[in-house]
Design a protein that fits this description.
The protein is an alpha+beta fold. Helix content is 25%, strand content 29%. The chain has helices spanning 29-44, 75-78, 140-153, 171-182, and strands spanning 49-51, 61-66, 82-94, 99-104, 112-119, 121-127, 133-139, 168-170. The longest helix has 16 residues, at 29-44. It is globular, with a radius of gyration of 16 Å. The termini are far apart. It binds zinc ion. The site of zinc ion (ZN) has 4 residues, from helix 3.
Length: 183
Amino acid sequence: MAIKHILKIGNPLLREKSKEIPLTEIRSKEIKNLIKDMFDSMKAYNGIGLAAPQIGVLKRIVIIGYEPSERYPEVQFQHSNIQYKVLINPKIEFLTKETMGFWEGCLSVPGMRGYVERPNKIKLTYYDTEEELREEIVEGFEAIVVQHECDHLDGILYVDRLKDTRLFGFEEEFEKAKDHSLA
Ligand code: ZN
């Protein structure tokens, strides 16, 4: 178990397409250790999701999981916690054109936030750690997190999805502006 270094935007590995994991490898020690390292790293940095390429491993694995966190205090009041999950070779199908906007952040783009809109209802298909194929309908905030993390597997970062770059900046500055407008 180890806390890994998180790659930051600018690192070319974050722009690569990750490889599918052969089913025969899902239960391997290598994959088990990778998943452990991902959880250790996500928790250490207070993330709510992490994709393997963010620690430099170009394999199609995503973990998500959320307990009320300092990084997303506003979410506590609007959504229940997201159960910890491992998504292996995940696939997404959009079930609606309706979108939901959210101020996204990313451990690979530290200190920044950007407003991104994404479809708010998806069909998620993936293998779990027991090699079972699962299919779930995911909605709301969790659907946003899943799409953000799965994008990493295709070398896409949330900044690529900004419609308005004026809604992108340092979290610190947005916070200051917010305090100011309340004063
Ligand atoms: Zn990210």
